[in-house]
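Pair request: fold both.
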Amino acid sequence: MIQIRIHGRGGQGVVTAAELIAIAAFNEGKETQAFPSFGVERTGAPIEAFTRIDNKPIRTREHVYEPDVLIIQDSTLLSTVDVAKGCDDKTIVIINTSKPKNEINLKLPKKNIFALDATKIALEEIGRNIVNTVILGAFAKATNLTSLKSLEKAITEKFKEKGEKIITKNINAIKKAYNL
C-alpha cells in the first residue's frame, strides 16, 4: 500500500488534492482512499489530508503516520509544523517552494526531494495562488503512481461544474509542472 500525506493551509485545496490523486488512481483500476484531518480550522490554518493507493481493498482508516509520499503545498509550514514526522530515507517529498532543494531545511535525503515553484505556475496558468492541482503534475512525474492522463481525467470529473475554462487552466498547470 502506498500512503500519501499532504500538508497545507485551509483554503489551498489540500483536501481536493488528496481526492484528485485518489480519483486518478481509481480510474487506473486501483483501490483508493482519501480523507482530511481538520477540526474547526479556518482559512490559513495548517491542515492535512491523506490518500492511500493499493491493488487490494484498503481496510485501515487511520491517519497516515509513515508516508511513502509527502506533499507540502506551503513551505512556510516547515517552520511551524513537523511535516517530516514519520518520514524515512525512502519518503518522496514534493514541496512548493521557490528555493532550490539544497536550501530546504528537512532532515531527509535531498535526492528524494522534488522542489517546484507551484505558486508561480498557479499564478501564471490559473490566475490564482491555489497550488493543489499544479503540485499534482510534479507528483505524477516524481512517483509514477498516476499518469498525467488520469490526473487530467480526474480534474475534468471533479471540476465539471466549474466549467471548461477552469478545467483547461488546471490541466495546463499540471502539464507545466509535470514537464519541469
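--- second member of the pair ---
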Amino acid sequence: MADKYVYIRELREQARVPQNGILSQSLYDDGKTKVILFGFAPGQELSAHTAPFPAILTFLKGEAALKLGTDEQEAVEGTFVYMPPNLEHGVKAKTDVVMLLTMIKPDPRA
C-alpha cells in the first residue's frame, strides 16, 4: 500500500481570510507533524505564547509583526521562521495575512 500524501497546488487560494478575526484550517495531522493554514484579517493577532515542541512559520501573503522571544521582527510574503521549543512567540497582522504553521511533535516512543 502506498503512503498517503496531501497535495495542494496553491495554498494562498486555499486560505480563507475573514473580514474580521482569524480562520484556521488543519491541512495535515499524523500525531507527529501538524500543519495548519491561517488567514488573519488586518489587526488580528495570536497573542504571545509558547509551545513545547519546534514549529515553523511560513508567510504566504501579507505583512505581520512578529514577537520571537524578546525580538520584534517583520514578516512579509516569503518569510520563514523556525522556532525552537518553548520560545515565546506571537503574530499580529498588519494586512490580510496567510500563514502556514508546521508543528513538529516528538515521538512519544523516543
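Observation on the second member. The chain has one helix and nine strands.
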